[in-house]
Amino acid sequence: MDYVNEMDGMVLKGEIPQAVDRFFAENAQTKDVDGTTTASKIEALEKLTGFVGNIARVKAITLLNSAAQDNVSMSEFQFNFDMKDGSEVKWHEVIRRVWEDGKVVNEQYFQN
Length: 112
What we know:
This protein has a single domain (2-111), classed as Nuclear Transport Factor 2, Chain: A (Roll). 29% of the residues lie in helices and 53% in strands. It contains 3 helices and 6 strands. α1 runs antiparallel to α2.
């Protein structure tokens, strides 16, 4: 699934809202580690655009691993950002995506 590599590549560049805009189906659903959900591409874009807007500096985005089988992909990232409020945000995340016709229909985030 080349589109998995394309989407992960955009995330690596910090182009997270742009990746959602390009690869999410209109009815895509997301579920965050805290249980927060979105029910559409528009809701996911609003959420991620708000988060990205609070980033002062991207210190590092690292893709640790990626795998795809059938219509499911898993991408493991580490993120490190300086935020506009002066805090530093670091996390390790696995993103599970379900794809249909080259578009994400479900995305779930797992952190440890």
